[in-house]
Design goal:
The chain is α/β, with parallel strands linked by helices and 230 residues long. It is 47% helix and 12% strand. It has 9 helices and 8 strands. The protein has helices at 16-31, 48-58, 66-86, 97-107, 119-128, 147-158, 172-181, 194-199, 212-221; strands spanning 2-6, 13-14, 92-93, 111-114, 138-139, 164-169, 184-188, 205-206. It has a 6-stranded parallel sheet with strand order 5-4-1-6-7-8, sandwiched between helices. The termini are far apart.
Length: 230
């Protein structure tokens, strides 16, 4: 049986620019100092909590507690809501994303969310594009530090033992996760560069999902990423 895993930011929702600013503001409000960099490629685990804990370690601070992380998540969701109220155009779907999910559902192909975002903020962004993420199986930064463990959790929550996994993502970290777990990968370069995905080993890359026939073809032809050797 096949299952399709979806990252969210930049993959289903075109929210990366709005999200970065909200994350920065929430981080400073919650922890009292600014995020050192929002070049997420600099972090070992590109997940909301992984980034927080790495920043704490790199700045010689104690690891963030569960209470602190819960407070951050609440502030972060509030920042997203305020941003959406002012600039709703910053919270749109990657063209064709909702239609793709509906098509997969109609075909009986299981789909699950596998994102480095936190649950509340991820579901908020999906709601803005008309997707009920709470009705889908999935895993979030709240569930694990690494994207590989998040993906494993998402599959487990789907309640199946798949023989084929296709992972849709927009970041080099998504391709790296797919390579680590032996998953076939479809890159989406709506908000990040195609070159980064290619360097990370992606061989099947889409701009968006506006041509459903091409997307379904990509699912069939996708391969496990083969990162370039440095």
């Amino acid at each position: 049986m096949r299952i399709i895993l979806f990252d969210i930011d930049g993959t289903l929702t075109a929210t990366t620019n709005a999200d970065n600013g909200c994350y920065e503001r929430a981080f400073e409000k919650a922890f009292g100092f600014p995020v050192p960099t929002t070049d997420w490629h600099c972090y070992k685990h590109v997940t909301d909590i992984g980034i927080i804990q790495e920043i704490m370690e790199n700045t010689a601070r104690k690891p963030a507690t569960k209470h602190e992380i819960d407070c951050f998540e609440e502030i972060y969701e509030g920042e997203l809501a305020a941003s959406f109220a002012q600039h709703p155009a910053g919270f749109i779907e990657v063209p064709g994303a909702r239609a793709l999910l509906e098509t997969l559902r109609g075909l009986g192909v299981p789909a699950a969310l596998s994102t480095g975002g936190m649950r509340r903020t991820a579901l908020f962004k999906l709601r803005q594009i008309g997707v009920d993420g709470a009705a889908m199986p999935g895993a979030f930064a709240n569930d694990a530090i690494s994207r590989a463990d998040i993906a494993r959790t998402a599959i487990r929550r789907a309640g199946i033992t798949p023989s084929d996994v296709v992972y849709f993502g927009d970041g080099a970290w998504d391709a790296t996760t797919a390579a680590e777990l032996g998953m076939r990968f479809v890159g989406v370069c709506r908000e990040y560069s195609r070159e980064r995905l290619v360097r990370a080993g992606a061989t099947t890359i889409l701009d968006d999902y506006s041509d459903l026939d091409s997307v379904l073809g990509a699912i069939e032809s996708a391969e496990v990423p083969r990162p370039a050797r440095v």
